[in-house]
Every structure is written in structure tokens, then in C-alpha cells.
Amino acid sequence: MTCVICLFYKQLGRFGTTEDDGRERNQTNNTKYWNLPFRKENFAGHLTSQHPDDFAEYKALSNQEKKKIFNAKKHVQESMHRYLNSMQTVLTIPISKGIVEVIIGDMFFKSELEDDDEEMELITKTNALKLFHQQDDGSYVAKVSNAILYNLTLQHTSVGLSFRQTSVVIGQHKDMFGNRKLVGLNDHEVGKMVRVNVSANLQVLSDVLNHHDVWAFSLADDESTHQGVSFFDVRICVYVSGRLFNIHLVVFPFYDRHSAINICKMICKLLDQLCNSWRHKLLSVSTDGDNTMTDGKADL
Fold first, then answer.
1. 142 burial via Cβ count (<10 Å: 0-12, 13-18, 19+)
2. Does the chain have fewer CB atoms within 10 Å around its N or its C terminus?
3. Domain containing 48: what range?
């Protein structure tokens, strides 16, 4: 044997210590090792300075209990917990009422269902909007209790993984690293987190469009079909802080007839929630030239 490791550090981590001037040293991720020659005073000095409470508790145990204490828990360094903050961070994101109730809760859902499916539609919307909590003033706050799981979910979906693929991959992370922060994710939970992210981004864009420095913007619309479902795609071009931004705004499932009046109603409904003064700021709407997308309807 030429080297030994501090098992207190492996299981419990290193505590900050206070110097004579009252300053607290930052924690370190460096593991404590001792090499030959081994000296008892080196071990004792480290344990009393870095693990005083745990070492005092350890010395009070019987010899049989001392042998079991380090096998009672999985070592910190054998899991991802060493690299993740043990404190649970809660994300609180304010969202306007129109974005939650109209855009997320209405325009993303199929509105025409059979009478027998009305109750199922209500349950589906309630579950989908479960992370949104209405405030006294009518606005909403999206609360995400597990920020690590939320951010990891968004990173996976942002590279093209489906909701189901994302839940499976993160489940594999959980099984491999034994991280309890990654427990309880399925494709429905992924959908809830993505809706929160979409709402948060729409809120940021809404704040930009309503800012007094933004006096004009333009839209570019297009239609496409994916797996038998029609989608309406909207991009926005806006000038902010000396730069011109061309941003993908949103893609809606389009269940109505592809008529000019329905398209105009959808655009107006969207803009009414994002910017109250959009009729004074909208410069133009460009399309691919289809007949149903070139007429003037409903104030557009």
C-alpha cells in the first residue's frame, strides 16, 4: 500500500474552515490523499480541522460500528451529486394571462372535439398547464421545482429528441449515475416543461415588442404539413438596440380550413396576446404567395 484516501471526504465532502481573521475558505473538489511515509499526526490534523463534528461522532462509536459507517451510504464521488448542488433550486417565471390561457392553453389545443370528449379535453388542458399558477392579479407564475431536471430536459429537446426519447435518455442518466434529481420523468412531464419554456420565451418577446423603443416589426408566414397535420409557421423581424433580429416566433397546429379569414384570425389572436399596440407597429406580412395568404381580412 502506497497511498490512502480520506473516507470522510469521499462520503461527506469537505467543510469550509474559518481562519483567525474570520474569513471562510471556499470548499475544494480536490480529494485528500496521503502518500508514504504515513504519519498519525497528519491524519489526526486533517480530521480535526476538516471534519471536526463527524470525527468526534466517529470516535464515540464502537469498533464494530466504525467498520460499518462508511458502507452505510453510497460515496459521493461515485455519483453525480458531487458535481450538482444539493440544494433544490426552484424556478419561478412570471407569465402574462394571455400567453398562458390563449396561446398555450387554447391555440396549441384542438378546439373542436366530440361532445363525449369535452371532459377529456378539460383534463388534458389541466394536466398540461399544471405548472402554471394564477396570481391574484390574473397573471400566472410558472413554478419548476427541479431546475436541474428542467434544464437537462430542455437541452435534450433542443437537439431534436422527442418527448418520449428525452424521458428515456434522462432515465438512463438516472440509472447510470444514481441521481435522485432525475427521477419521475415521462413524456407528459417533458411536455409540461417545454410549455413552460415556450411561455417564458414568448413573454420575453412580448416585453420586447411592447417596449417604447420598438416602433415597428414585420411577420413572415408559411404553412406546412407533417404526418398528416397542418402547421402554421410564423417568423418575426424586429429592430432592437441597434440590431435587426429575424426570430422564429411559433408554429401552431392548424385544424381549421386554410382560408384567408381563418389565417388572419389566427395571426390577430396571437398578436393580441403579445402586443396590444401591434396594429400600430406592424409594417408588413410576407407569405409564400398562396392565394389564401394574400388577402386583407380582420384588420390585417
1. buried
2. N
3. 3-78
